Amino acid sequence: MDLSQFSDNTVAWAVYALSALGCLFVAWRIALWFNNVEVRKIFGIVAAAVLMTPAYTSASGGDMAPAFMVLVMEFLAKNNAGVMRAAQPLLTIILLGVSISLVSLLVRKVTHKAEPES
Predict the structure, then answer these.
(1) Which structural domain, as residue segments, surrounds residue 88?
(2) Whole-number Å distance between alpha carbons of 21 and 30
(3) What is the tens place of the pLDDT at every residue in 94-118?
(4) Is the dihedral of CA 36, 40, 43, 49 positive or negative?
(5) Tally of CA atoms within 13 A in the half-sphere of 16 that contains its CB
(6) Number of compact structural domains in the chain
(7) Does residue 33 sit in helix, strand or coil?
(8) 68 CB contacts (<8 Å, ≥6 apart)?
């Protein structure tokens, strides 16, 4: 693949991906200050979801952008339908991630409770 096949959108997404990974690394470092391990995990999940969830920029589809950016811009433009369009994938990913985290916590508690203490 040569460079003529790349578009400005591809370059922009690559730069954003590197920046999002840097922000995610900083969020994980901040989460180390939390005493509760589960709160630390949920904070990391929410940070990853906010930074890495894409959403369509228009109702007809087409270009995509980070969902939180679309959400903020649609909110500032007072476009309620656009806010809901951007919030739907973001909230879905956050809910899915937190649900998986809570199920893993429950499984871990049950399995550690079943093991006899030495």
Answers:
(1) 3-114
(2) 14
(3) 999 999 988 988 888 888 876 666 5
(4) negative
(5) 17
(6) 1
(7) coil
(8) 50, 51, 53, 86, 90
Tell me the residue type at 86: A
Query: What would the pLDDT profile of 30-84 be if each residue is shown by its tens digit?
Result: 988 989 888 888 888 899 988 888 888 777 877 778 888 888 888 888 888 888 8
The count of residues in the chain is 118
Whether the model clears a pTM of 0.85, i.e. scores above it, the answer is no
**For residues 90 and 40, what is the distance between their CA atoms, to the nearest angstrom?**
19
Look-up: residue for tokens 């690559």? Answer: 14
CA dist 51 → 1, 11, 16, 57 (Å): 28, 17, 9, 16
Sequence letter at residue 26: V
Sort 39 into a burial class: Cβ within 10 Å, 0-12 / 13-18 / 19+: exposed
